[in-house]
Design brief:
There is one protein chain. The chain has 572 residues and is of the alpha/beta class. Strand 19, helix 24 and strand 20 form a beta-alpha-beta unit. The longest helix is centred in the first third of the chain and has 15 residues. The N and C termini lie far apart (67 Å).
Length: 572
């Protein structure tokens, strides 16, 4: 049948099973919104800003395992997505961003709200497209979803010239399972293109890895974000238990290895636990799955795990030997590789002496109770963990509160922790919480933030209120940019340049102005009462903003300085 480009686009989304889109309309994308108006099967979430839409689509993807979808118009609408696209790219989150540009005859003429968004996003997308011909639209959209979810997942941008949205072409519904047989995908498959294929693992290398692991006396496993993305949490856990190996997590690996497992040593790296970092310094084999060895994990590549044979498993060949030189590696899907390893490691290992050494360093960070009427991070997070449901989804922004949350909460399943690891995006958390709550309407969603991060995108409280999303926001309010101030305190001779936030707004009043519950608390008894109230009143569909006053000089402990040896703690 013959349809215009906008109808073809909406029908292609329906082919994919898309039921939710986050976005913000504008002139160039009006035809698409007109087509969307006729399709009640797709729910559209109108955010306060395109950046909020981008983070919401990302949070939806991470919490549901589906592809997130985000709409924006041309020019500033498209460029407002950039931070969200880069955030999804660094954390391998599958989101399809759809923008519309000016008409083809105006491209390159500096028309009103024209921008080369494919050029802008080229470094931070897995792939991007500009659609100039309506006959190519359906094939392009289908390919975009395949690329976003295949191999190492990531964001894809489809930019559609405005005339394509109104021009007509023949359209035939193609079931999702048939898309791999369509158009250019067939050619990409034939060349084993990395954007859509997972390489077959090297069985000889897997044999060698199994032998190394079985002979190891002091193994350490690292659970990275790739374990989450590949759905390999069960296989990873089974291997860790069979090896009887202490296991560290990266920020992005949170939830893939159960937080209550006795083998867990905690986070590794700059703000990692002493147990994880000392184990890394002393192990004889370091086995990392889905971990790209970022600078926040390795700190100093020249001294990182210097006593160990380093084994890396990753689906992206470009990550192998990029930051840390490996002794042996396998490129491929983590789930498949771990299953193959489990077939080869037949006997359960016993590393009691090694575990005793590692866990001798595992001590809970203690924050003393303050006398100045301020709360401590430990008090706040203990109350939250005790009162909110066990499977609460947690989104964070970036800074001290992010590290405190990851250190304190015990994440039990993949997708429970949603945070900006690679790009470190302040303002990510509220949009991500909106996406997570939309994708998990019956679940409890907790947004942990700081006063600096929250003020960046707090306008999305309007979205939270309108769609009756009972998100609970906890603000660690120390009236400063806490993590930057911590560095200024430790490294820059207490020169607190432009990090003190001695200004508004009153967050509780701001929340009330947006139509959500707002409270300011100064002690844990008040906090407990309010947390119980959030559960009791959840059915009213109103979110909560709880402004928790903490001391300006609270620090994240432990801390190892950037570029330092991983066991050289600057702050414990």
């Amino acid at each position: 049948m013959k349809l215009n480009g906008s109808e073809i686009l909406i029908n292609c989304l329906l082919e994919q099973g898309v039921d939710t889109v986050f976005g913000y309309p504008g002139g160039a994308i009006l035809n698409v919104y007109d087509a969307l108006y006729k399709h009640a099967e797709i729910k559209h979430i109108l955010t306060a800003h395109e950046q909020g839409a981008s983070h919401a689509a990302d949070g939806y993807a991470r919490s549901t395992g589906k592809v997130g979808v985000c709409f924006a118009t041309s020019g500033p609408g498209a460029t407002n997505l950039l931070t969200g696209i880069a955030t999804a790219y660094m954390d391998s989150s599958p989101v399809v961003f759809i923008t519309c540009n000016v008409t083809g005859n105006l491209i390159g003429r500096d028309a009103f709200q024209e921008v080369d968004i494919t050029g802008c996003t080229l470094p931070v997308t897995k792939c991007n497209y500009m659609v100039r011909d309506v006959d190519k639209l359906a094939e392009t959209v289908r390919e975009a979803f395949i690329v976003a979810t295949s191999g190492r997942p990531g964001p894809v941008l489809v930019d559609i010239q405005k005339q394509v949205t109104s021009n007509e072409a023949e359209y035939e519904f193609v079931p999702k399972e048939k898309h791999f047989e369509q158009g250019r995908i067939v050619r990409l498959k034939s060349t084993h293109h990395p954007s859509i294929s997972s390489p077959e693992p090297d069985l000889n290398a897997i044999d060698a890895i199994a032998e190394i692991l079985m002979k190891s006396e002091k193994p350490l496993l690292i659970c990275g974000g790739g374990v989450v993305r590949s759905g390999a949490a069960d296989e990873f856990t089974e291997l860790a238990e069979k090896l009887d190996a202490p296991t560290a997590i990266t920020v992005m690996g949170g939830g893939a290895f159960n937080g209550h497992n006795n083998l867990k040593t905690g986070m590794i790296g700059m703000h990692g636990s002493q147990a994880s970092n000392m184990a890394c310094d002393s192990c004889d084999v370091l086995f990392a799955v889905g971990c790209r060895f970022s600078d926040r994990v390795t700190l100093n590549p020249n001294t990182f795990a210097s006593q160990a044979k380093i084994i890396q498993i990753d689906i992206d060949a470009s990550e192998i030997d990029k930051n840390i030189k490996t002794d042996i590696h396998v490129v491929g899907d983590a789930k498949k590789i771990l299953r193959l390893l489990l077939e080869r490691i037949t006997e359960k290992q016993d590393h009691t002496d090694w575990k005793n050494y590692v866990f001798s360093f595992k001590v809970e960070t203690v924050y003393k109770k303050l006398e100045n009427g301020k709360m401590t991070p430990a008090e706040i997070l203990s109350a939250v963990a005790e009162i909110l449901p066990d499977r609460t989804i947690v989104t964070t922004d970036v800074g001290q509160h992010q590290m405190w949350a990851i250190q304190h909460f015990k994440f039990d399943y993949p997708g429970q922790l949603i945070t900006s690891g690679g790009f470190g995006t302040m303002g990510f958390g509220l949009g991500a919480a909106i996406g997570a709550q939309v994708g998990n309407p019956e679940g409890t969603v907790l947004h942990v933030t700081g006063d600096g991060s929250f003020r960046m995108n707090c306008n999305e409280l309007a979205t939270e209120e309108y769609y009756k999303l009972p998100i609970i926001t906890i603000i660690f309010n120390n009236s400063c940019l806490g993590m930057v101030r911590q560095w200024q305190h430790l490294i820059y001779d207490e020169h607190y340049s432009q990090t003190t936030l001695d200004r508004g707004p009153d967050f509780a009043k701001l929340a009330e102005a947006y139509g959500v519950h707002g409270r300011r608390v100064t002690n844990v008894e008040q906090l407990r009462e309010i947390l119980h109230e959030t559960i009791e009143k959840r059915s009213d569909g109103k979110g909560w903003v709880i402004d928790c006053q903490i001391d300006i000089d609270e620090m994240v402990k432990p801390m190892v300085g950037g570029g330092s040896h991983i066991a050289d703690f600057m702050l414990i």
